[in-house]
């Protein structure tokens, strides 16, 4: 087992990512890739857990492979991970312990945006769905709800075993969304998942002051990542003349703020748009607005949902023998 640096375990409650170790799921692309890249640039080693790596992630892994670098230089390691499999989630922590001696930051960031293959409007057993009618679960909820909850359980267990305290703090960072504050007929499972994540984050807020385990989250708006750009069925929600993209780098900066800033304590949800960031209040929040938060064609795209519902036998498909 690799030795931990003394400065990490003896660190005060003023938290810096430098010299720390993070696990980031979904870091093969998008927001989580940008977050992993920023952590590494700031001196934090990263376990990248994903099904596969896009070219930019492979390049990042090579850059921080540890070959030819000195002691104390951050490293990145890749663990092929299907976040729906709990044993594979446990393996991420085992790799972090073997490679780095433990973990300080855990971000279960992997997520999907209601693809047709696991979607409320394409029920299990229908032609486009890969959710089996006999499976008793939806893959989209396994990824967007169960995976971050189970990963957080595993993280807290490791943190407690490592002697976490307000003077030796640890961090869990959840990816929520502006979808956790709004409604969208097109993607009800995604919206339900992000509402769930907001409640989960806030419910664990009290761990920070008592145990030094800060669980908080970011709520990105319309971010230019493959989650949008490689899904033409989602791009129709946007009007290029009216709607603006925020960048994954903006979200990554906000994510590091959630880890390091003393004023963003446990239970905080930090919303990120195009050139704007704000704290989401638990009660009487005005909701997302402005650049990077609008999808002007959302209402008109509801017609496709009603067309699906008008098809004969919607939702009545049965498992094939």
TrEMBL record:
Signal peptide: none annotated. One of its GO terms (cellular component) is cytoplasm. It holds the Pfam family adh_short. GO terms for molecular function: oxidoreductase activity. Keywords: NADP, Oxidoreductase. InterPro entries: NAD(P)-bd_dom_sf, Sc_DH/Rdtase_CS, SDR_fam. It comes from the Eukaryota. Belongs to the short-chain dehydrogenases/reductases (SDR) family. PANTHER family: 15-HYDROXYPROSTAGLANDIN DEHYDROGENASE [NAD(+)] (PTHR44229:SF4). This is NAD(P)-binding protein. It comes from Karstenula rhodostoma CBS 690.94. The lineage of its organism: Eukaryota, Fungi, Dikarya, Ascomycota, Pezizomycotina.
């Amino acid at each position: 087992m690799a030795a931990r640096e003394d400065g990490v375990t003896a660190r005060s409650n003023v938290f810096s990512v430098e010299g720390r170790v993070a696990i980031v799921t979904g870091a093969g692309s998008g927001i989580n890739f940008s977050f992993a890249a920023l952590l590494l640039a700031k001196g934090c080693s990263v376990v990248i857990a994903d099904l596969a790596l896009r070219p930019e992630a492979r390049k990042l892994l090579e850059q921080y492979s540890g070959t030819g670098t000195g002691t104390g230089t951050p490293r990145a390691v890749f663990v092929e991970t299907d976040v729906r499999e709990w044993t594979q989630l446990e393996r991420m922590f085992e790799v972090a312990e073997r490679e780095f001696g433990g973990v300080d930051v855990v971000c279960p960031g992997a997520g999907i945006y209601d693809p047709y293959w696991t979607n409320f409007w394409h029920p299990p057993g229908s032609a486009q769905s890969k959710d089996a009618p006999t499976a008793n679960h939806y893959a989209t909820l396994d990824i967007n709800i169960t995976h971050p909850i189970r990963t957080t359980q595993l993280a807290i267990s490791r943190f407690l075993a490592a002697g976490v305290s307000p003077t030796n703090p640890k961090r869990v960072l959840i990816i929520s969304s502006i979808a956790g504050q709004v409604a969208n007929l097109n993607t009800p499972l995604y919206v339900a998942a992000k509402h769930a994540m907001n409640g989960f984050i806030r419910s664990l807020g009290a761990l920070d002051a008592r145990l030094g385990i800060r669980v908080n989250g970011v709520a990105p708006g319309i971010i230019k990542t493959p989650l949008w750009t490689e899904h033409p069925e989602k791009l129709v929600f946007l009007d290029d003349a009216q709607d603006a993209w925020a960048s994954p780098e903006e979200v990554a900066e906000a994510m590091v703020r959630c880890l390091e800033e003393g004023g963003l304590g446990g239970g905080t949800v930090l919303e990120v748009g195009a050139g704007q960031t704000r704290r989401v209040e638990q009660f009487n929040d005005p909701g997302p607005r402005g650049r990077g938060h609008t999808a002007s064609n959302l209402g008109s795209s509801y017609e496709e949902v009603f067309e699906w519902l008008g098809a004969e036998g919607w939702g009545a498909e049965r498992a094939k023998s």
